[in-house]
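Before we proceed, please read the two lines closing this message. Let me know whether the structure tokens fit the sequence:

…
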Amino acid sequence: MAEITYGAPQQLTLEQLTDWLWGQEIGTGPVIAIGNNGHTTAATFRHSLTEPTEKAVISLLVGGQAIIPAGKTEVCSGEVFILSQKVDVVVYR
């Protein structure tokens, strides 16, 4: 399956970035990677005819560790822009 990468503005809050990610998944397919290209947050999606039914959540790493609720699975992790600052995050669903 084809993969496609989109960029999100640096200035987004964590909540706004999570909403942006969900909006991209709805039209494209599930997120498979997240990070940055030096200028924007970059997220890669697997182009699929089947869209995710559960919203992916972006969470800040705490002390370098991912805090993922029971019953949820890590999708990817990386360094993204939140309010124009680079931070480490994990994406789970």
Q: What stands out?
A: The chain has a mean pLDDT of 94.
